[in-house]
Specification:
This protein is mostly helical. The protein has one domain (3-112). Helix content is 67%, strand content 8%. It has three helices and two strands; from the N terminus they run H-H-H-E-E. It has helices at 10-30, 33-53, 58-97; strands at 98-102, 108-112. The protein has a two-stranded antiparallel sheet with strand order 1-2. A hairpin with a 5-residue loop joins strand 1 and strand 2. The longest helix is centred in the middle third of the chain and has 40 residues, at 58-97. The protein is elongated, with a radius of gyration of 26 Å. The relative contact order is 0.10.
């Protein structure tokens, strides 16, 4: 934010925060992680400005709270998705090393997954 941010009115800060929350929603829905990070800083600054100005417009605050809660839910869902992908990649990596199967009697058999390759040089 610029140094003239202290000259803003409550309405201007509300409007800027509303815009920031909408951009954050778009970034969350499109998976733009760089934008999300930058918007977190901007959002924090705008909230600090609202606190400094003593904003008390209940209806406007309720709207912003609702949008922030919506974005928080989207962020939680995005993080859950990232965790699931990481878990799936870990599962796939473990399959490279070994794979367990079970016969009709419930006995486990392990199939080794890594193939050792040798290069034979001939003269």
């Amino acid at each position: 934010m610029t140094d003239n941010s202290t000259d803003r009115t409550v309405g201007e800060v509300f409007s800027a925060l509303d815009d920031c929350l909408e951009r954050e929603k778009t970034a969350l829905l499109t998976g733009d992680l760089d934008a999300i990070s930058a918007l977190m800083d901007e959002k924090s600054e705008l909230i600090s400005q609202l606190n400094a100005l003593g904003a008390t417009e209940d209806h406007a605050l309720d709207t912003l709270k609702d949008k922030a809660a919506r974005n928080q839910a989207l962020l939680g869902s995005a993080l859950d998705g990232i965790r699931r992908v990481a878990d799936r990649l870990a599962d796939m990596e473990s399959l490279r090393h070994s794979f367990d199967t079970y016969d009709s009697h419930g006995k486990r058999n392990t199939i080794e997954g890594e193939i050792v390759r040798h290069v034979e040089k001939r003269a």
